[in-house]
User: Which sequence fits this backbone?
């Protein structure tokens, strides 16, 4: 099977799960660090939405670059913060979802 079809199938399966639900409240509690990470994840997810809705390729490219910078910052902050393992998994899952959504946009742009 072609890699793009496999990736598209995986993305659809991920989207069909409860990936968009915010489960971080139950795993992360209400500490200031957890709230900061939730806010960061919400920003990343809203940027991914804007990327998907944008019709101009140049605008999409700029938004993807900005989103990737935020993902990098989030991963650095994730290493620095003292969070429970369950909270880390939830936050990393949200970050992975955003990266997959970025990849979907890149594949759509590359298609003839």
Assistant:
């Amino acid at each position: 099977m072609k890699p793009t079809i496999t990736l598209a199938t995986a993305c659809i399966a991920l989207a069909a799960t409860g990936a968009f639900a915010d489960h971080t409240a139950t795993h992360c509690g209400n500490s200031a660090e957890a709230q900061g990470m939730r806010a960061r994840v919400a920003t990343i997810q809203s940027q991914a939405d804007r990327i998907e809705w944008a019709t101009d390729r140049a605008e999409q490219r700029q938004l993807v670059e900005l989103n990737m910078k935020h993902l990098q910052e989030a991963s650095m902050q994730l290493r620095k913060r003292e969070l429970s393992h369950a909270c880390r998994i939830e936050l990393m899952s949200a970050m992975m979802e955003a990266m997959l959504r970025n990849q979907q946009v890149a594949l759509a742009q590359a298609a003839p």
In short: Residues 3-110 form one domain. The chain has one domain: 3-110. The longest helix spans residues 85-110. Residues 71 and 95 are 7 Å apart (CA to CA).
